[in-house]
């Protein structure tokens, strides 16, 4: 192994902040030649789905882990996309999570079938539809993301989104989409917080990043297409973005993911 090879490999891990067993400092993003080298070497992507609930007292640490990853991705401009899915099956404990949706609980159950698991739980993190683990485990999170960034996806996807009245207008262009693929369009609220007045987190103010507010599936999408999603009432599109993922309907693996900010209308 030559010194140049060592530098390139370590630069990739350092720039992503994902060295195994190491929690990076978020105060000092890397700069200069090694960061550029690392970004050029990144061929893959990482889509992180966190299944969480405001009614679960073990979930805030996983929410913080997701925020940590999201900040690293922003600082280093890496293809790491985070999604927070709030499930509804803890709502009976006394606090109804305002971001919860039965559809997100069902998405998690579909993943459980794909992983041959006999239960669902929170906080659960899933990376690229390929591995699952407890969402507060930073070291496992970093290893899974590192593997995703080193992958070489065949499928590619570009998306754009604009707002028209109370609708999000989405257009996409993809390559190497398979018949068994679906296109999942997630309308994502970048930041949210709530004062919890009941349940296991009573008295706490919980903060979240990239909360999925709507998820729309298009089965067997064409290579070029468009769709519309309804925006929540009285929102500023600048507080939202769109994350799109190509997902196999047979094994639930994510074949590619992309993200788009709302273009000025």
How would you characterize this protein structure?
With 265 residues, this protein is of the alpha+beta class. Helix content is 25%, strand content 36%. The protein has five helices and eleven strands. The strands form two sheets. Strands 8-7-10-11-5-6-9 form a seven-stranded mixed β-sheet, with helices on one face. Helix 1 packs across helix 2. The chain is globular, with a radius of gyration of 18 Å.
Broad structural category:
alpha+beta
Question: In whole angstroms, how far apart are the ends?
Answer: 52 Å
Order of strands, main sheet, comes to: 8-7-10-11-5-6-9
| CATH classification, class level | Alpha Beta
Shape designation: globular
Mean pLDDT comes to 87
CATH superfamily: Glutaredoxin
Low-confidence stretches: 1-40
Strand content: 35-45%
What labels describe this entry?
25% helix; seven-stranded mixed beta sheet; alpha+beta; Glutaredoxin; globular; 265 residues; four-stranded mixed beta sheet; 36% strand
Brief digest:
With 265 residues, this protein is of the alpha+beta class. It has one domain (3-18, 43-263): Glutaredoxin, CATH 3.40.30.10.
Protein topology:
Layout: H1 3-16, H2 33-41, E1 46-52, H3 60-76, E2 80-86, H4 102-114, E3 124-127, E4 131-134, H5 138-149, E5 156-164, E6 167-175, E7 181-195, E8 205-219, E9 224-230, E10 240-248, E11 254-263
């Amino acid at each position: 192994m030559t010194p140049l090879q060592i530098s390139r490999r370590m630069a990739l891990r350092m720039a992503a902040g994902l060295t195994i067993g190491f929690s990076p400092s978020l105060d000092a993003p890397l700069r200069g030649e090694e960061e550029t080298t690392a970004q050029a070497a990144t061929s893959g992507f990482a889509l992180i789905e966190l299944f969480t609930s405001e009614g679960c007292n073990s979930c805030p640490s996983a929410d913080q882990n997701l925020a940590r990853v999201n900040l690293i991705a922003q600082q280093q401009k890496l293809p790491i996309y985070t999604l927070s899915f709030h499930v509804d099956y803890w709502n009976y404990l006394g606090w109804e999570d305002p971001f919860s949706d039965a559809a997100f609980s069902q998405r998690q159950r579909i993943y459980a079938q794909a992983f041959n698991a006999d239960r669902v739980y929170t906080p659960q993190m899933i990376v690229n539809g390929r591995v699952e683990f407890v969402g507060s485990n930073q070291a496992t999170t970093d290893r899974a993301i590192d593997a995703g960034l080193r992958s070489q996806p065949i499928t590619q996807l570009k998306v754009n989104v604009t707002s028209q009245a109370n609708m999000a207008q989405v257009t996409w262009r993809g390559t190497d989409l398979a018949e068994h693929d679906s296109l999942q369009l997630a309308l994502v609220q970048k930041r949210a917080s709530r004062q919890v007045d009941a349940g296991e987190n009573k008295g706490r103010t919980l903060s979240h990043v990239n909360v999925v507010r709507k998820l729309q599936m298009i089965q067997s999408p064409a290579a070029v297409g468009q769709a519309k999603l309804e925006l929540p009432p009285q929102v500023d599109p600048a507080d939202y973005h769109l994350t799109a993922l190509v997902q196999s309907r047979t094994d639930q693996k994510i074949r590619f993911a992309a993200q788009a900010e709302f273009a000025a209308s």
